[in-house]
Amino acid sequence: MQESVRVDETTRQKVLAALSRERTAGLNPDPDFDRRLDQYLPLLTELFGSLYDCRPDWQDQLAALVVQSARSWQERSPELKTLDAKHEADSGWFLDNTMLGGVCYVDRYAESLEGVRARIPYFKELGLTYLHLMPLFLAPEPHSDGGYAVSSYRKVNPKLGTMEQLRSLAAELKANGISLVVDFIFNHTSDEHEWARKAAAGDPEFSDYYWIFPDRTMPDAFEQNVREIFPENHPGSFIRMEDGRWVWATFHTYQWDLNYSNPDVFRAMAGEMLFLANQGVDILRMDAVAFIWKQLGTPCENLPEAHTLLQAFNAVCRLAAPSLLFKSEAIVHPDEVALYIDPAECQLSYNPLQMALIWESLATRDVSLLAQALERRHNIPEGTSWVNYVRSHDDIGWTFADEDAAELGINGFDHRRFLNSFYVNRFPGSFARGVPFQDNPKTGDCRISGTTASLCGMEVDPAEAVERILLAHSVAFSTGGIPLLYLGDEVGQVNDYAYASEPGHGADSRWVHRPHYPAEQYDRRKDPSTPEGAVFNGLKRMTEVRARTAELAGTRLVDFATNNQSVLAYQRPGWQTWVLALANFSDQAQTLPAETFSGYSSAAVDLLSEAGLQLAEGLTLLPRQYLWLRVTPV
Ligand code: GLC
Ligand code: GLC
Known about the structure:
The protein is an alpha/beta fold. The chain is built from 22 helices and 25 strands. The site of one alpha-D-glucopyranose (GLC) has 10 residues, from loops.
């Protein structure tokens, strides 16, 4: 944030005058809103001013934003206001050890919103408390990037249902203890969004909603420093419009980046955000946060203003939808990932480093990088949480820090090449059956697609694959944060190569790991002699144990050295007892001598199997075995 404090009396008076004009015109006075306005107006002024005070009308824009927020609050349902009050009193509710997330595509997993509703009994069986429905808004067909190209934030894709159905689904989920998570795709809209259509038609007001230039001069200048995200789709960051102008498109050609240097765009998107909040959405997954601010001469990723923008959106929520949380999707260098995590910015964040290093450890059978990451990068501010996952709907990118790797004598570039060849089965002896994503011959960069089961070797050796799947999840379930399952993974679903002939999907290998609902596999989930049953039971066990283990709440972790390159360990401190998690990534049994455990009393219990152990005898872990030991520090 910049130096000057803008909470000057004139700004405040302007805002209050605008609000009182609105009230004279019919908006209800609301002491609750006024209390929060008192508390948050200085902050919002500071943030908004630091982005926009170069514009002569910035105070009017701010006043309009506050009025818009007051209106949205007035429209918020009494049920949601009750939830706001409940979460205001218990702001750390999402740190609970009963939290478990699931994510799915509405159409692929359940056909429609009604289909999702019909699966609520299953979600409860699994223990979900958080359901992320992949983008479900109106989008161009068939090119929609799985819904990430939004044509209207206020219309549900008619294939899936209606906004009315989304609202009632949100309420029913809540009644069943499940929070609804949807994406806020605010870096870009589809080229079919009304704003984009107007821009394409030459309307100057809406041309200013995007980064549009008459010729290549500015695009060439920007592209000096900007990396390509989807190089297989188009080179550079700009695409040519029909009238010859150039528009910024970081991702696909039909996803146009919004221009947040224009305060109209901020206000318009704040309106869309509050609209979604009022439908009963509990958590917004803030898509592509790294890219939302552009500045000539910079890489246009992770700029300080991107944080200011998120904080400003967060402050708007505090006024008009106080229980709404943000989850950051920043799949970038770990130093940058951490900067988005703050109660005043994004309370939740994907943990892409842990995700990538779980795969790295499975390939190398060496946990050094993962252990180092847990030691130095896991702990985050109080009142925030990781969302820990083994894989998502996206590719796996090797986003570890080269500096960290170098300390362990690992060359980042070479190591990524090894990991890519390992996971696309170009490395002799690999168990993994992944496919490349966005192979970029210019830079040597490449990422990986594949379901968890296929990457763990389900097609090669199902018994070992089951053990790898559980080992990987044992980490995501116990390091601290909300574990998030890609639904289908809990029954060991493999790659779906049919994607190649689906309209609009052929050129995007991520569809290989977005298969349809595997009905038959779900039918086998109760039979532990099948791979489906073994994975399902193993994950259910972890969920149940986690839910009754107070040490596993929150995110705080204390590192633990095993002096064994294949055995990962970390501690989760509790009140009197701690949990020591151990995970053997080797294909051989590993023995840890008694000295390793000299900080604890000898008697320990493995919470997963309920077996008692004497640490004074040392400990042997079988290949791919994981233990959650309740220990007593001495
Ligand atoms: C996010 C989504 C990804 C999408 C991109 C563009 O990274 O996870 O699936 O392609 O944003 O919206
Ligand atoms: C988005 C994309 C992902 C890409 C990342 C780059 O998250 O979905 O594929 O790796 O951006 O930052």
